[in-house]
Amino acid sequence: MAEAVLSREERKLQTRAAIIDAAAGLFAKHGIEATSLDRIAGTLGLTKGAVYSTFASKEELIDAVGQSRTLLIDPQPLFRADLTLRDGLRALAKDFLALRPKMTREILFLELEMFLYAERHARWGRRELRIAREGRREAAAQLAAVAAQRGEDLPMPAEDFFVALEALIMGIAREQFRDPGSISDASIERLIVGLAG
């Protein structure tokens, strides 16, 4: 049987995905700063030039790795006018519990590596912080609008709410990875729903 011939664009996409996968594994195992583009290329049998033809810089590759390995919990239940904030948080908690098996060592290590990289590389870190703040502002505006529509008071300013929610979920995720079963699903749900006040 003849093999399907990949188009140039399909080969480029495959190469891009392979570079991201290799970088993610090496970043998680050795750290972002300790992993060179040469090392990433070498694991794939590529040259550093091949990596640069796909990514303009190491930071562009770091961004791509972050985007490919981020597990996002959809905040949409919080924005539904037919749900109270408490019910939206309950739905979000259930989504988090369902997503937990996908929170691999690689993903959690990468999250920590991204934090450290942002702290050590101020320009990149400021850009990442700006992007995060913009996302929170948009979500906060949406939450405030739907809370007003529901006639519901938020327990704290909407932006503070999203910072607290993110910190709580990431803290629980790290602890659950480090010590599975250290906190029950029911307690996790109570903690998340408790943000409603």
Give the proportion of residues in helices: over 70%
Order of helices and strands: HHHHHHHHH
Integer average pLDDT: 92
Segments where pLDDT lies below 50 for 5+ residues?
A: none
Shape: elongated
Beta-strand portion reads under 5%
Structural class: mainly alpha
Number of helices: 9
The largest pleated sheet is described as: none
**What's the domain count?**
2
Total beta-strand segments: 0
* Rg computed from alpha carbons, rounded to a whole number of angstroms: 20 Å
Give the CA-CA distance, first to last residue: 64 Å
Structural features, described:
With 197 residues, the chain is mostly helical. The protein folds into two domains: 8-64, Homeodomain-like (Arc Repressor Mutant, subunit A), CATH 1.10.10; 70-196. It is built from nine helices and no strands. The protein has helices at 8-30, 37-44, 48-54, 58-69, 85-99, 105-120, 122-150, 158-178, 185-193. The protein is elongated and about 60 Å long. The protein starts with 7 loop residues before the first helix and ends with a helix. The model has no long low-confidence stretch (mean pLDDT 92).
Question: What structural keywords apply?
Answer:
Arc Repressor Mutant, subunit A, mainly alpha, elongated, 197 residues, 9 helices, 2 domains
Question: What is the topological layout?
Answer:
Blueprint: H1 8-30, H2 37-44, H3 48-54, H4 58-69, H5 85-99, H6 105-120, H7 122-150, H8 158-178, H9 185-193
